[in-house]
Amino acid sequence: MLSEFSLIDRFFARRARTGHVHHAALGIGDDCALIAPPAGEVLAVSTDMLVEGRHFFPDVDPHALGHKALAVNLSDLAAMGARPLGFTLALALPAAREEWLEAFSAGLFELADRFDCELMGGDTTAGPLNICITVFGAVPPQRALRRDAAQPGDDVWVSGTPGDARAGLGVLRGEWRADDADAAMFRHALERPEPRVALGLALRGIARAALDVSDGLAGDLQHILESSRVNAVIDADAVPRSAALARLAPDVQRRCTLAGGDDYELCFTAPPGARDAVDAAAQRAGVPVTRIGTIVPPENADAAPAIAWCDAAGNPLSLTLHGFDHFHAD
């Protein structure tokens, strides 16, 4: 039977020591990691927790789970325009199953290696399956993409095709049906999101405000509006849909694209004069982006920031949408 320390060494520490990147002044193996950001930059730090039964199904592929556990944290760095440096891993396990650990750590480190993101430390314990990763990145403070920087007149953009992950969740829950090929694509979007790190870096100095769409476009964009004290007008029909999502019922499409979470696409604002620069940044990053609306001034100083939804013809839509709430059912 694996002990705690043999588990850590075999599946995590040994892999971290043999990596090619060393961003920590002192990494895994001591009481603390020591991290110094590059000169002129500050640390960007984010933590995400994945809990079995809340964020993933018990039978999820452990390789996919290792990928997603790190991907959701890298997505936060992407939203700030930060370059990944490293991460810590806290892992609660109901049992130390070698086959599961081999697949989980492989999925984790394959993504970590792609982004030169070094495992710097962590902890393991027995308990219900729970994965908590803290990720560290670096960004020049004046170039960080923040939620409070949107200005009236800005365009609102989104990357990729939001809604595919929520469509996958709906298929797995039996809420709607899709053919085998579409269902496989949706499930891949749900279980193996692609963090938009390259896009976040390319948007530094171009975009004003940004965040990643983890809890649904409607709910997450609201965070930018509240932090920046502005409103937005969004064309619900302009939000891009994948070909697979477009084959689902229109009401399902809208529910997934506007209120679905777990896509980890970037939503950001930029001045209209930066449209060519945004397109060029997206091309460099290899990620499609779509302009979906406009930031507008608040109606009055006391009114809560809000999204006004419209269709492609500019007609107002009456939509009741909210983002995912971790303390309430979706």
Structure description:
With 330 residues, the chain is α+β, with helices and mostly antiparallel strands. 34% of the residues lie in helices and 23% in strands. The protein has 9 helices and 12 strands. It has helices spanning 4-17, 62-80, 98-114, 164-173, 180-191, 197-202, 217-228, 250-259, 275-285; strands spanning 24-26, 34-35, 42-51, 83-93, 118-126, 130-139, 155-159, 210-213, 231-235, 265-270, 289-296, 307-310. 47% of the residues are buried.
Number of domains: 2
How far from one another are the termini? 39 Å
Helix content: 25-40%
Gross morphology is globular
Largest beta-sheet details = 6 strands, mixed
CATH homologous superfamily identity of the largest domain: PurM-like C-terminal domain
CATH hierarchy class name of the largest domain: Alpha Beta
Secondary-structure-based class equals alpha+beta
**Mean pLDDT over the residues:** 88
Determine Rg (CA atoms, Å): 20 Å
| Helix and strand pattern | HEEEHEHEEEHHHEHEHEHEE
Order of neighbouring strands in the sheet with most strands? 8-10-7-11-9-12
CATH topology of the largest domain: Phosphoribosyl-aminoimidazole Synthetase, Chain A, domain 2
Report low-confidence residues grouped into runs of 5 or more: 324-330
**How many helices in DSSP terms?**
9
Give the number of DSSP strands. 12
CATH architecture heading of the largest domain: Alpha-Beta Complex
Measured by DSSP, the beta-strand proportion falls in 15-25%
